[in-house]
Amino acid sequence: MVPRCPVPCDASESTAPFDRATAERDVRRELDDLNDAAAHADEARYLAHFTRDAVFLGTDATERWDLAALQAYAHPRFSQGHGWTFHAERRAVVLADDGRTAWFDEDLRGERLGPARGSGVMQWQQGRWLIAQYNLALTIPNERFDDVRTLLDSRPAGDVRARHKQAYQAATEAVARGDVRAAITLLSPLVAEAKALPGEDLEFWLDNELTWLRWADGDADGARGEVEHARTALDHSLLPADALRTLRLHERWDRAYLAMDSARRARGAERARALTGADRARADYDELARVAGDHDGAAVLGAFFAWARGEGRAAGLEARKVDVTHDDDLQDLYVLALALDSAGDHDGAGQLRARICAGRGYLMKPIIVRALEADGHRCSP
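and the corresponding structure tokens:
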């Protein structure tokens, strides 16, 4: 008699058919343990139920998360002891003939969400069943669908802003943990919704946030692409003229900074072309800055351009034009510290780095702290 495997067999173990009843029981046990881990805010146990390339689809249309983004969402809650509770009231499991893939769907009752449906795909990996995709959906009775559709169509812009606030906080925490990709994943899905609000500035700020996240991730092309998206957002905006001018200053400053940041890394003939392009971008910014009276922004950018060219004295002169006592922008302070260091004012640069480390917590802080660390300067614990 050919022996049967109690669980799906690896090729090295046997070619005998697997035990479906045992495999189905193990799938159910893993899903029950997933829910138990969530209820007890056990982050490590919860995440261990997913494959490395798993996708989690949440109840909101923007929530298509890889494992890093799921962790970025869960960590702030689990770390404070706040989980979520679902009880499975019905579950169906279907197994592939080779016993290495399972499909499931289950009716859930959440203590906060109420009735819901979970479905997904599991794979036999590392000696256990792991979730490759999980889709959590709210179930809507057919007779109530028209009511729900009306609510969705009339959803106020404040809902998007509230979700942006939540995603922004989670993204900030993700970067602080060193997971820039998760932060990008959290914020990116909101851009499409923000495009539907031309009278708001949310789309621009999302593009701006993604610009510096991609820069922190070493994706120079992606960062420049986000600046282009920001310009397009402003071109289609219905914001008042004065608000548009302020945002265009940000967009042009970012464009010039990124152009010079790329140029300083280039070599040979490519460097010469890149420097020309950076100078052109700076001239575009300076033109608007003169009209808007943005003296400090122009000086910070001038300090960065001089530093990037290795002109320490000129960098220091530009940096000293800025009244740093009234500038709490951490990116400005970072650039000014680079400039002062190159001019030989190491004490002044050190004071600015100390201010960065003690600065208020917002998305740019962990990004700039990472840049400081790359330069060899670490904030004290």
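(Above: one complete record from the training split.) The beta strands are 50-57, 64-66, 86-95, 101-110, 114-125, 128-138.
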